[in-house]
Amino acid sequence: MKDIIKDCKDTKITISEMVLPNHTNNLDTLFGGKLMYWMDMAAAICAHKNTKKISVTASVDNITFKSPIFKGDIVTITAYITRVFNTSMEIFIEATSQNSKSQKSVICNSAFFTFVTLNNDRKPVKSIEVKPKTKEEKKLYDGALRRRQLRLILAGKMKPEEANELKSIFN
Ligand SMILES: CC(C)(COP(=O)(O)OP(=O)(O)OC[C@H]1O[C@@H](n2cnc3c(N)ncnc32)[C@H](O)[C@@H]1OP(=O)(O)O)[C@@H](O)C(=O)NCCC(=O)NCCS
């Protein structure tokens, strides 16, 4: 089957959630694991909608919790594919929280997720190609190779000496 080719921006999806009492910790702020679940869900929806196949989370890069999200806030998460390698793709996630009283929105988290598309026999398969168009998409596309090599080294799937994009760090 021929690959689908899409502009990065056309792979974008958005989900929103309201922070309810059962989503919070003892400080009445959003439990971090809940946000990670929503981020993973947004990435999964992005992967599924664009590849039209089952895709699974292979890895998640660093997630930092910059500011607390309060009960009643609206959390909006966007996800889009920055680059497809072969069977895997990098998905950029950004989470924004809108305060229920002030209506002010802040970016509270961002992260890169890697998803792998599987066929009906649960084997990795290539399914889509993406093209960056904007300056930001091109920047993320170019950096994706470096991030891929770093995460494969950390997962024990690549030798540091094979990571040509990271020579200055490892050699
Ligand atoms: C992700 C998974 C399918 C990879 O399978 P695998 O047998 O290691 O397959 P391969 O080594 O052929 O790798 C397939 C692709 O995954 C990528 N990959 C594998 N491990 C990775 C990791 N830790 N980080 C980023 N990419 C990874 C490879 O680079 C390759 O990408 P490419 O085809 O674009 O080059 C397999 O490890 C798996 O099923 N993991 C569980 C997924 C899951 O259940 N997720 C939900 C968590 S609860």
Characteristic key phrases:
Thiol Ester Dehydrase, Chain A, two-stranded parallel sheet, 3 helices, binds coenzyme A
Broad shape? globular
Gyration radius over CA: 17 Å
Major sheet characteristics: 5 strands, antiparallel
Structural class: alpha+beta
C-alpha end-to-end distance: 41 Å
Number of helices: 3
Please identify, by name, the CATH architecture: Roll
> What is the CATH homologous superfamily assignment?
Hotdog Thioesterase
Strand content: 25-35%
User: Tell me, what is the CATH class?
Assistant: Alpha Beta
By CATH, the topology is Thiol Ester Dehydrase, Chain A
Question: Biggest sheet, strands in spatial order?
Answer: 2-4-5-6-3
Bound ligands, named by name, code or SMILES: coenzyme A
How many domains in all?
A: 1
Number of strands: 7
In which range does the helix fraction lie?
Answer: 25-40%
SSE order, as H and E? EEHEEEEEHH
Rounded mean pLDDT is: 95
Low-confidence stretches: none
Plain-language structure description:
By secondary structure, this protein is of the alpha+beta class. The chain has one domain: Roll (Thiol Ester Dehydrase, Chain A). The protein contains three helices and seven strands; from the N terminus they run E-E-H-E-E-E-E-E-H-H. The chain has a five-stranded antiparallel β-sheet with strand order 2-4-5-6-3. It has a two-stranded parallel ribbon with strand order 1-7. The chain is globular, with a radius of gyration of 17 Å. The chain starts with a strand and ends with a helix. The mean pLDDT is 95. The structure holds coenzyme A.
